[in-house]
């Protein structure tokens, strides 16, 4: 992994955020703020205005900019909307009504889709964003045409204890140095994009709300989910056991395709590594084909 000088403070964060947008996102990307009862939500969007909508949720602390490796590719056939999570680092702002429960998260996404004026959308998420996306699909399956989960955490299996142990210093006292050390450990010092690394380091100084957490969805709820899903797992991820997660998905989600991507870690998704072309190919083919025939 290439080291970058640590940066802190809101000015450094905004500078790094817009630098990633300018350098890594395709020309023609637009920024939109949608007001909801839970706050104003920033979306960075790319693709034809009249194309089917694809809403992408990042992992915790990652911001919408993390989808730069997918924006141009998927923006050929979809209107890609990458979201800054309310209460997390990014350009979204917390409103008077805080997000404290899964019901709040679902209400926020309901309001966000209403603000977009979108019909059923394809919904994707990485890590914590995958956890949110799965809960929303269970809440409003009629509003989710397809579901894409990239190494989703807390959905089908627990975290590895070693992952939580290494993350603890960063979580208890966030700093640029601790963020960098954790990412270096989890990714095996993969040469991540320096601009994105600078943004992740700057996010350590960003005021964040406590994320909503909770138990995994029940097996009964998952077995009843009638939404086509694609679950792509990090073969070298340290957050969870990819083989165990894949087995759980195969057992619990009746309309899911599952694949383990070799040579990529949890935090390298969705932006870095030899697995990215394969990830993009699988996402593109899954999203562009006709909806799967659903079981009665």
Largest sheet: 9 strands, mixed
Task: Tell me, rounded to a whole number, the average pLDDT.
Answer: 92
Number of helices: 10
Multimeric organization:
single chain
| Contiguous runs where pLDDT drops below 50 for at least 5 residues | 1-9, 292-296
DSSP strand count:
9
Structural category: alpha/beta
Q: If you had to describe this structure to a student in words, what would you say it looks like?
A:
The chain is an alpha/beta fold. 38% of the residues lie in helices and 18% in strands. The chain has 10 helices and 9 strands. The protein has helices spanning 10-24, 68-74, 102-116, 128-139, 161-172, 176-187, 194-202, 219-223, 242-252, 276-288; strands at 30-36, 39-46, 53-57, 79-83, 93-94, 121-126, 144-150, 229-234, 256-261. Strands 1, 2, 3, 4, 5, 6, 7, 8 and 9 form a 9-stranded mixed β-sheet that branches. Strand 6, helix 4 (128-139) and strand 7 form a beta-alpha-beta unit. It is globular. Residues 1-9 and 292-296 have low confidence and may be disordered.
Q: Can you lay out the helices and strands and say which pair or pack?
A:
Blueprint: H1 10-24, E1 30-36, E2 39-46, E3 53-57, H2 68-74, E4 79-83, E5 93-94, H3 102-116, E6 121-126, H4 128-139, E7 144-150, H5 161-172, H6 176-187, H7 194-202, H8 219-223, E8 229-234, H9 242-252, E9 256-261, H10 276-288
Parallel strand pairs: 3-4, 3-6, 6-7, 7-8, 8-9
Antiparallel strand pairs: 1-2, 2-4, 2-5
Short description:
The chain has helices at residues 10-24, 68-74, 102-116, 128-139, 161-172, 176-187, 194-202, 219-223, 242-252, 276-288, and strands at residues 30-36, 39-46, 53-57, 79-83, 93-94, 121-126, 144-150, 229-234, 256-261. The protein has 296 residues and is of the alpha/beta class. Strands 1, 2, 3, 4, 5, 6, 7, 8 and 9 form a nine-stranded mixed sheet that branches.
């Amino acid at each position: 992994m290439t080291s970058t000088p640590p940066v802190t403070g809101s000015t450094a964060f905004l500078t790094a955020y817009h630098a990633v947008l300018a350098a890594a996102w395709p020309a023609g990307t637009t920024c939109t703020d949608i007001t909801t009862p839970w706050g104003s939500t920033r979306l960075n969007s790319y693709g034809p205005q009249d194309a089917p909508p694809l809403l992408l949720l990042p992992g915790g602390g990652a911001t919408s900019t993390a989808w730069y490796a997918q924006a141009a590719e998927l923006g050929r056939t979809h209107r890609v909307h990458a979201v800054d999570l309310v209460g997390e680092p990014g350009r979204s702002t917390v409103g008077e009504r805080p997000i404290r429960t899964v019901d709040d998260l679902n209400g926020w996404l309901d309001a966000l889709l209403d603000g977009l004026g979108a019909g059923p959308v394809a919904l994707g998420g990485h890590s914590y964003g995958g956890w949110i996306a799965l809960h929303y699909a269970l809440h409003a399956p009629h509003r989710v045409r397809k579901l894409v989960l990239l190494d989703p955490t807390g959905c089908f299996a627990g975290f590895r204890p070693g992952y939580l142990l290494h993350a603890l210093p960063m979580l208890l006292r966030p700093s640029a140095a601790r963020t960098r050390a954790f990412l270096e450990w989890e990714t095996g010092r993969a040469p991540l994009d320096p601009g994105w690394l600078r943004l992740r380091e700057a996010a350590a100084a960003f005021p964040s709300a406590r994320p909503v957490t909770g138990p995994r969805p029940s097996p009964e709820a998952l077995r009843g989910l009638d939404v086509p899903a694609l679950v792509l797992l990090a073969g070298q991820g340290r957050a969870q056991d990819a083989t165990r997660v894949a087995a759980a998905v195969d057992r619990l989600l009746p309309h899911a395709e599952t694949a383990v991507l070799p040579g990529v870690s949890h935090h390298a998704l969705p932006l870095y590594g030899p697995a990215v072309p394969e990830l993009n190919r699988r996402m593109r083919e899954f999203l562009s084909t006709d909806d799967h025939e659903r079981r009665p």
